[in-house]
Specification:
The structure holds two protein chains of two kinds.
Chain A: H1 3-30, E1 38-43, H2 47-59, E2 65-70, H3 72-80, E3 87-89, H4 94-102, E4 111-116, E5 118-122, E6 144-147, H5 153-164, E7 175-178, H6 181-189, E8 195-199, E9 213-215, E10 224-230, H7 237-248, H8 250-258
Parallel strand pairs in A: 1-2, 1-3, 6-7, 6-8
Antiparallel strand pairs in A: 3-10, 4-10, 5-8, 5-9
Chain B: H1 4-33, H2 39-51, H3 54-64, H4 72-79, H5 87-113, H6 116-123, H7 128-139, H8 141-156, H9 160-166, H10 176-185, H11 189-213
Classes of the chains: A alpha/beta, B mainly alpha.
């Protein structure tokens, strides 16, 4: 091939590449806004249900969700620093409330999207007290993992339930606090604790740890409400509203129940 | 503000560096002077904590140190204590985590001495241990200072692995990095700022000291 021919071929290739790039650019520019995914920041404990909800939502014709999971406090810190999410699904009520009062989330957008439940879980081969929390002082309970009550709603609920049954101070030297409820479960799954008080939603995980579990009566602790807000910086606030309406609806309630949550109910 | 986590971190860093000096000095010597064909592989193993995410170390530790684990089991049988959620468990984790920060500066310092001073010592009748203790170690003084400061500072800054195996027990395993994380999580930004600024200043001063000491030479570690 002569140099001339080679350079001509190179130029043709170059122009073909340019055309493709141009076409791609146009495609990006003219794509309808409706196809833009809704950016959702979610507390890690709700990641699996949200993925299932996203699938149902997409089947109903809603936009795809672009999901970022993390600890509620970390996500809150990111949001106050301008992280570009549309919707924030927190694991508690405090952070969404705070975002609304700071003006970072839309006034009136806050709602409870799920109510969590606690279960008492025992490692395989370890006795699960038949009398529930009242039986936790037995020697078979060597270590009890809970989420940190100061950080995590499930931790606070676990402490309330232990206090309500008179176990809290008696068990204080056996309680191990995880940073969040996921870490409390991790301690159980790796055999580092004999028992754990964790979210009922974990009993629905496909790869849940072995061992028996039983539900903790909801009257032993204040409701574990998980609240959602729409962020003030969202460019898709209408779509975000539509998604929150979907979360309150019957289709979402089925998914929530399947994952061990109670449906939203009224927000106080 | 509660300063117990600072105290825990200082204790952890001191014990970790002490253990690493005892274990790391012979290892660094062997890496610098040894002729084994395993040397390169061991060098690579020592450097692993530099590149692995702390979560990998934390995950393995959670399994190894568990009451039924290959390390935690025998420990429980002998001491009656579990290794996870304990200060001893944090020391084991930190020793692995900070290993390259102590061993690599020592290895490079020993290598920098070269064979001649040791040959001279041998000619003058010193046995190998004598030569090591009275000739090599003093000559590697800067390497020791670098190793101690880097190992100490790096252990103070340890977070991910400790988060996974520590359980954040106040006065036992809640280190300064964990305390900062919890202050951020609970929106106590004032306390988070105070502890963070303290750690930042300390780390800067520590590095400044090493760089000043070593003149224009970079500390002998893959930083």
């Amino acid at each position: 091939m002569s140099d001339q021919a080679a350079s001509a071929l190179g130029a043709r290739r170059g122009s073909a590449l340019r055309q493709w790039l141009l076409a791609g650019l146009l495609l990006v520019i003219v794509s309808p806004a409706a196809a833009a995914p809704l950016k959702v920041a979610v507390a890690s404990n709700f990641l699996a249900p949200l993925e299932a909800l996203a699938e149902v939502y997409r089947q109903q014709g809603g936009p795809a969700l672009q999901i970022s999971a993390g600890a509620t406090g970390q996500l809150y810190a990111q949001i106050t620093q301008g992280a570009p999410y549309d919707v924030f699904l927190a694991a508690d009520q405090a952070r969404p409330q705070r975002l609304v009062s700071e003006g970072t989330a839309l006034t009136g957008s806050r709602m409870t999207y799920a109510r969590g439940r606690l279960v008492l879980w025992a490692r395989p081969g370890v006795e699960l007290p038949a009398d529930g929390l009242a039986g936790l002082q037995r020697p078979s309970v060597t270590r009890l993992a809970i989420a940190n009550p100061a950080l995590a709603p499930y931790g606070r609920a676990a402490r309330e339930a232990l206090q309500a049954t008179g176990q809290w101070s008696a068990l204080s030297d056996r309680v191990i606090q995880g940073q969040n409820v996921g870490q409390a479960l991790q301690y159980l799954a790796t055999g580092n604790v004999s028992h754990a008080l964790v979210a009922a939603s974990y009993t629905r995980l496909e790869n849940r740890p072995a061992g028996d579990y039983q539900r903790v009566a909801g009257r032993l602790h204040a409701p574990i409400r998980q609240d959602a807000v729409i962020l003030a910086g969202s460019a898709s606030a209408d779509q975000a509203r539509a998604f929150l309406a979907f979360l309150r609806g019957p289709a979402a309630a089925d998914v929530l129940a399947a994952f061990g949550y109670r449906a939203a109910g009224p927000s106080p | 503000m509660n300063l117990t986590p600072v105290w825990i971190s200082l204790q952890l860093a001191s014990v970790t560096v002490a253990v690493l000096l005892v274990l790391g000095t012979p290892l660094a010597w062997w890496l610098a002077m040894g002729r084994s064909r395993w040397r390169v592989a061991v060098d690579a193993v020592v450097a692993l904590p530099l590149v692995l995410p702390p979560t990998v170390l934390g995950f393995y530790m959670l399994i190894l140190l568990a009451p039924q684990g290959p390390v935690g089991g025998p420990w429980l049988a002998v001491t009656g204590e579990t290794l996870t959620f304990s200060f001893a468990g944090l020391v084991i984790t930190s020793v692995l985590y900070s290993l390259p920060f102590v061993v690599q500066p020592l290895r490079d310092a020993f290598r920098g001495i070269g064979p001649r001073p040791l040959e001279t010592a041998a000619m003058l009748g010193a046995n190998r241990l004598d030569a090591f203790l009275t000739v090599a170690c003093p000559l590697a003084g800067r390497g020791f200072v670098t190793a101690i400061v880097l190992g100490f500072a790096h252990t103070l800054g340890e977070f991910g692995a400790i988060l996974m195996v520590g359980g954040s027990l106040p006065g036992e395993t809640r280190t300064v990095a964990i305390a900062i994380y919890e202050h951020v999580e609970t929106l106590d930004y004032a306390a988070a700022h105070a502890l963070s600024a303290g750690l930042l200043v300390f780390s800067f001063v520590a590095l400044l000291a090493i760089y000043t000491l070593n003149g224009r030479r970079r500390p002998g570690v893959g930083l």
